[in-house]
Amino acid sequence: MDSTFSVEDWFDDEATEAEDLEFSRLQQSIWKEGYKQGIHHAKDAGLQKGFEEGFGECAELCLKLGEIRGNLRALQQFSSTFSAAKDLIAIDELLAEVDQFSVKSEKITFQQHPQNLSEFVAAASLNRANLIPVIADLIARGSVILDGNKTS
Question: 13: which DSSP letter?
């Protein structure tokens, strides 16, 4: 074959066996790459969905915990100023627990580029499963203290 091609060369029905083999390899390579990209995008979509669900659930709880923490701090300040709270020791202890929890939860880290996606997802799920009951308990205990100190 010479170095110049005509339009007819592109539509040559008499391809050689080597050309057919090369075409098959190229077609297989493109198919494999497309398959890999499809799997990658599906994993990303699943990971994103899981992140959004977990983030939404935890963010809602953390906002509620922050609200209770702020109310307890206000009650603590008011109580220490006017000696008015029934449960000043309980408030101080609970606030200390909330502060410890905040420090501990800030130290939770994940591998930035995990080698194994399933291990990363499992670790994130375990952390979420461990944190949610702790946050819910702190919220419930704070609510009890705040409800007991409401004036009618």
Answer: S
CB count within 10 Å of CB 93 equals 13
Tens of pLDDT, residues 76-112? 887 777 666 667 788 888 888 888 888 877 776 665 6
Per-residue pLDDT tens digits for 125-146: 777 777 888 888 888 888 888 8
Distances in Å between the Cα of 45 and the Cα atoms of 52, 88, 117, 118, 125 are 11, 48, 13, 14, 17
Quote the CA–CA distance of 100 and 96 in Å, as a whole number.
6
Using a CB cutoff of 8 Å and minimum separation of 24, what contacts does 58-65 make? 58/128, 58/131, 58/132, 58/135, 61/132, 61/135, 61/136, 61/139, 62/135, 64/139, 65/98, 65/135, 65/138, 65/139, 65/142
Please name the residue that has the structure tokens 């194994």: 116
For residue 20, the Cα-to-chain-centroid distance in whole angstroms is 48
